[in-house]
Write a structure and sequence with these properties.
The complex is a heterodimer.
Chain A: E1 4-7, E2 10-13, E3 19-25, E4 31-37, E5 43-49, E6 56-57, E7 65-67, E8 73-78, E9 87-94, E10 105-106, E11 110-114
Parallel strand pairs in A: 2-11
Antiparallel strand pairs in A: 1-3, 3-8, 4-5, 4-9, 5-6, 7-8, 9-10, 9-11
Chain B: E1 4-7, E2 10-14, E3 19-25, E4 32-38, E5 45-51, E6 56-59, E7 62-67, E8 72-77, E9 86-92, E10 103-104, E11 108-113
Parallel strand pairs in B: 2-11
Antiparallel strand pairs in B: 1-3, 3-8, 4-5, 4-9, 6-7, 7-8, 9-10, 9-11
Classes of the chains: A mainly beta, B mainly beta.
Chain lengths: ~120, ~110
């Protein structure tokens, strides 16, 4: 049981380049989330998904797109990378409930540097 | 929307002493409050959580208290050890909101000096 995995672990981009970060989970979770972590600012939600084929904007969605074509995968795309997108990106997943919030399990993170 | 404030931003304690980290939240409908520990270069991991139907929860050396009236909750670590050194994040969630989102505090760097 691998839990939540992310690829790649590290990446360096030049301004204007594009890339896709992949998150995969094998816990059959409905909900998946993408966060970015910057020093002194905690974890901020970029986009999230409540099930296959659904996506929604979080707190800081500008400059990012997402897709959830399969229940176990959640992709985060940067179409034209900017230095302000230098950050550590974490994916998380959880069970779905309309009555209570369940535990979110995090992936190992992707460290992205945009030059 | 929900806003979570966390204090202090850094905390240094002697090994064996207690550490307390406090968080306040703004949405009175929030009812789930987890605490995550993040070691350097690692992923955040849940260490304890509390729901609004209880006021205190304890797990060995860590405990969380919740005051719904005042809208604040705290993490207490007793008999601190060097391996407790990490960044700690609090969060809050309103399950009535679409997607069961967590709103995180900015984090507290805990240093345990031996």
């Amino acid at each position: 049981n691998a839990g939540v995995t992310q690829t790649p672990k590290f990446r360096v981009l030049k301004t204007g380049q594009s890339m896709t970060l992949l998150c995969a989970q094998d816990m059959n979770h409905e909900y998946m989330y993408w966060y970015r972590q910057d020093p002194g600012m905690g974890l901020r939600l970029i986009h999230y998904s409540v099930g296959e084929g659904t996506t929604a904007k979080g707190e800081v969605p500008d400059g990012y797109n997402v897709s959830r074509l399969k229940k176990q995968n959640f992709l985060l795309g940067l179409e034209s990378a900017a230095p302000s997108q230098t950050s550590v990106y974490f994916c998380a997943s959880s069970y779905a409930s309309d009555r209570y919030t369940d535990t979110q399990y995090f992936g190992p993170g992707t460290r992205l540097t945009v030059l | 929307g929900e806003n979570v404030e966390q204090h202090p931003s850094t905390l240094s304690v002697q090994e064996g002493d207690s550490a307390v980290i406090k968080c306040t939240y703004s949405d009175s409908a929030s009812n789930y409050f987890p605490w995550y520990k993040q070691e350097l270069g690692k992923r955040p991991q849940l260490i304890i959580d509390i729901r609004s139907n209880v006021g205190e929860k304890k797990d060995q050396r860590i405990a969380v208290t919740l005051n719904k009236t005042a809208k604040h909750f705290s993490l207490h670590i007793t008999e601190t050890q060097p391996e407790d050194s990490a960044v700690y994040f609090c969060a809050a969630s309103n399950p009535e909101e679409y997607g069961n989102k967590l709103v995180f505090g900015a984090g507290t760097i805990l240093r345990v000096k031996s």
